[in-house]
């Protein structure tokens, strides 16, 4: 069969209509109509047929898969900012360009992080469950007391775009901003956010009231918050993670929450998605969301637009704007 003249773009999940329509105009776009995560066999077929593959966080694009890529696969245009689902080294060794969608989900993810801080500190979901249960005995001065945010210390692990957007919001809630990052951010940003830099993550952990994980998942950040580091947190501390589950040792976190060694956790991401550790699911002091940190209509469309720009630029023979280099992570 003659190959279509338009480049074959295989999209592993359903995207907003407006994005799919535009993709079909521009490319020979093949959509995964049932929207289930692709099976390994389907992914192998996809990398063999595609000129451009558009995966999401639910697709594992590892070295073994990349080794089976067909001769035409030139671009992996990830629908997402985090690229821990892709073996960058294997892709680059094979001459495959990788792009992502940075910047357009910053504000939404920062909003959701702040929402989780509030939900845990002020016991919002617990209160909602009580209100719905029919068991609420009426107002009492000691009912469902949470923690005041105003005047507390927020420690942000990873002061990139999302960390900074979170800091801006948190300042409005009267939180003092502290952070740990691979490298110190420029002085003007520190000044604007009145942010205190901690070179030692361990020291920062032991001094904070709230900790937010906003760094990418890389080999260096895998289980960054392990049992030893979680033990440094104060008993009233709240931990929030909207980054990647793998950054926190989930079993150790469940131990700490069960034993009251920290006050609560707000999680949007998990080590083995879509499975959520049943021990976490059983806890009242854990607020659990199903990886929806960036899930807004506007955000998803903007992500799709970035994918289209990256793919179109690439197939037209130019360097796409959001190239991901191995050195970035
Ligand atoms: C996305 C995310 O929803 O972009 C990311 O890195 O974690 C999410 O907000 C998802 O990854 C899309 O693939």
UniProtKB/TrEMBL annotation:
Which GO molecular function annotations are given, in alphabetical order? Answer: glyoxylate reductase (NADPH) activity; hydroxypyruvate reductase [NAD(P)H] activity; NAD binding
GO CC, one annotated term = cytosol
Q: Which residues form the D-isomer specific 2-hydroxyacid dehydrogenase NAD-binding domain?
A: 114-293
D-isomer specific 2-hydroxyacid dehydrogenase catalytic domain residues: 20-324
Coiled-coil positions are none
The record's listing under Pfam families reads: 2-Hacid_dh, 2-Hacid_dh_C
Note the InterPro entries from the entry. D-isomer_2-hydroxyacid_DH (IPR050223), D-isomer_2_OHA_DH_cat_dom (IPR006139), D-isomer_DH_CS1 (IPR029752), D-isomer_DH_NAD-bd (IPR006140), NAD(P)-bd_dom_sf (IPR036291)
Q: Which PROSITE patterns match?
A: D_2_HYDROXYACID_DH_1
- Mind telling me which SUPFAM superfamilies this protein's record contains? Formate/glycerate dehydrogenase catalytic domain-like (SSF52283), NAD(P)-binding Rossmann-fold domains (SSF51735)
Q: Which UniProt keywords apply?
A: NAD, Oxidoreductase
Q: Which Gene3D superfamilies does the UniProt entry name for this protein?
A: NAD(P)-binding Rossmann-like Domain (3.40.50.720)
Give the family this protein belongs to, as stated in its UniProt record. Belongs to the D-isomer specific 2-hydroxyacid dehydrogenase family.
The identity of this protein, by name, is Glyoxylate reductase
């Amino acid at each position: 069969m003659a190959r279509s003249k338009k480049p074959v773009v295989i999209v592993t999940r359903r995207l907003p209509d407006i994005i799919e329509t535009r993709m079909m105009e521009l490319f020979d776009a093949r959509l995964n109509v049932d929207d289930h995560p692709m099976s390994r066999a389907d992914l192998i077929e996809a990398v063999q047929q595609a000129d451009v593959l558009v995966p999401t966080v639910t697709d594992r694009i590892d070295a073994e898969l990349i080794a089976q890529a067909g001769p035409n696969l030139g671009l992996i245009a990830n629908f997402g900012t985090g690229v821990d689902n892709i073996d960058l080294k294997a892709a680059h060794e094979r001459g495959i360009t990788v792009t992502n969608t940075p910047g357009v989900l910053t504000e939404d993810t920062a909003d959701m992080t702040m929402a989780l801080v509030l939900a845990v500190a002020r016991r919002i979901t617990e209160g909602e469950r009580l209100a719905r249960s029919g068991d609420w005995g009426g107002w009492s001065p000691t009912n469902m007391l949470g923690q005041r945010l105003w005047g507390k210390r927020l420690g942000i692990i990873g002061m990139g775009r999302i960390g900074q957007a979170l800091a801006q919001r948190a300042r409005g809630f009267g939180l003092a901003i502290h952070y740990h990052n691979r490298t110190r951010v420029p002085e003007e940003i520190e000044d604007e956010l009145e942010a205190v830099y901690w070179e030692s993550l361990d020291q920062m952990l032991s001094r904070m009231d709230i900790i937010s994980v906003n760094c990418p998942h890389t080999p260096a950040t895998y289980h960054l918050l392990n049992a030893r580091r979680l033990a440094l947190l104060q008993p009233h501390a709240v931990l929030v993670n909207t980054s990647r589950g793998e950054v926190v040792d989930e079993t150790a976190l469940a131990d700490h929450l069960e034993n009251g060694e920290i006050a609560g956790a707000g999680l949007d991401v998990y080590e083995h998605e879509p499975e959520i550790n049943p021990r976490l699911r059983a806890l009242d002091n854990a607020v659990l969301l199903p990886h929806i940190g960036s899930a807004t209509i506007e955000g998803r469309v903007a992500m799709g637009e970035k994918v289209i720009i990256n793919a179109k630029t690439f197939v037209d023979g130019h360097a796409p704007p959001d190239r991901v280099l191995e050195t970035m992570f």
